[in-house]
């Protein structure tokens, strides 16, 4: 059982070299070429200075920028409700074909306290193409008023929706912003960060690939009987703005008696800039849960149809008690 933690702007674009300008003007062709050359050289020099500044940056400086980014981002994303297309496959030993399910849900991220990250609420409205309820933004409507009953009602919806999840692994970290909570200012001291390289795929060639390992106990994520589960993984971060483009979390739960098998859990999330919201929003989350016995569950969640709403909450109980994300 995996339990949730207790708790910008887009990347700067390099200057383009506009070589297409050369020779396009009839008058003063030599001057036009020279002018274009000046622009090109200036762009190269600026890029060179920028690269030098980046080279002198430390991992601690980049993490500090990412931490400041996440602290603001937590509040901004807590006003967004999205639609989730969640496809799961469960592979059992001795079976030739996996069990599959497709869930479509309203998904809402809400910050319940000043010192916490997000709590995720998933409300399933369609299972394998069949409607199980009307689409009516039930979750968002609960938080439109400042009421202490909103969280309790949302918990019931989450519990109702969690029964559709496949596999034996009980999990509450299957929300796309889970790893970002590690970058909150109150949590970064718990981790060791190291730069692995430059570039995170074709879209983020200048971003830093930073690996992290949780070193403090008790850990933010807990397992069966509240045992500590140290997290490890990577962040793809813009070193200038602190924007987080991708996250990876790996957790290893040891076997506990005969009832809880040793399980590895991995979740990868990608973020894409949404111009309408002005935010880097989660667009895809890939998970896999692998038991030492051979059983495994894999899933892919894709997000879209983002909508903003106003939310105010008051929460009397411990936010860590919220069964975030279902089973």
Describe the structure.
The structure is a single chain. This protein has helices at 29-55, 59-77, 138-142, 149-162, and strands at 80-91, 99-110, 119-127, 130-131, 191-198, 208-214, 232-237, 244-253, 263-274, 279-291, 296-308. The chain folds into two domains: 19-57; 60-321, outer membrane lipoprotein receptor (LolB), chain A (Clam), CATH 2.50.20. Helices cover 20% and strands 32% of the residues. The longest helix has 27 residues, at 29-55. It is globular and about 55 Å long. It is built from four helices and eleven strands; from the N terminus they run H-H-E-E-E-E-H-H-E-E-E-E-E-E-E. An eleven-stranded antiparallel β-sheet has the order 4-3-2-1-11-10-9-8-7-6-5. The chain has 327 residues and is α+β, with helices and mostly antiparallel strands. Strand 9 (263-274) and strand 10 (279-291) form a beta hairpin.
Could you tell me the CATH topology label of the largest domain: outer membrane lipoprotein receptor (LolB), chain A
Strand/helix succession:
HHEEEEHHEEEEEEE
CATH class (first level) name of the largest domain: Mainly Beta
Counting structural domains, the number is 2
Mean pLDDT reading: 76
Low-pLDDT parts are 3-46, 313-327
How would the global form be characterised? Answer: globular
